[in-house]
């Protein structure tokens, strides 16, 4: 199933139970993907082969496979082998923090598929161990801990919805005090810059506003830093394209995710916008959280 000669795409959707695979499947269907869920894995290989031979739709085919799938332990290795070295075949992994997963399971009052009579957290930890290899091989990892359904749709739209761009860049600001995002490819720490929080007239403003941006960008070291960052990102993009990857997330952090990281994310995204066949999206994870 080759995207270059037949225009087809193949996607494996995997991830933690409760992390949003069902929601992600519905979103992908909106984007034109044909999604198959809960099919015994021993049938999936034959199905993929038949689709490769067919001339008709679907052109974009997604398979949901997780620890619930019949034959998961026996056949997942064979399925993953179909994704090695094929840029048209990608893996999406949905993740979330243990705390978020516990809360979601408690809200729906159901047990974890690997709980086996033990505590809920025991089942979650077992599943993490089972899936850690797949997570490491994934082309796209999305942490849904703090995402709404709308946010998840936007995150999936870039790599799986729009076919008009060759590469998708997400620049995401965050606050270290709320934790480092897990689904990032490069992290930039802005805590070396003077903090506008301690300037009374700037404290209530955010990095999306000109007074804060002017203050942050006035630091004598930031221009050289941003030039180096753009150069480093460009080098990484070249390597990603060579490896068949089309998406990259750059996390930009400061203490609270309100001033410095937001201002620098906006400035960095502005410098990256306009690159040939590159779509740039800015997301401020913790803005308004304080």
Automatic annotation (TrEMBL):
Record organism: Dietzia natronolimnaea
Pfam families from the UniProt entry: PapZ_C, RapZ-like_N
Single GO term (MF): GTP binding
Domain RapZ C-terminal as annotated: residue spans: 168-287
Binding site for ATP: 15-22
Entry protein name: RNase adapter RapZ
Keyword terms of this UniProt record: ATP-binding, GTP-binding, Nucleotide-binding
Domain RapZ-like N-terminal: 9-160
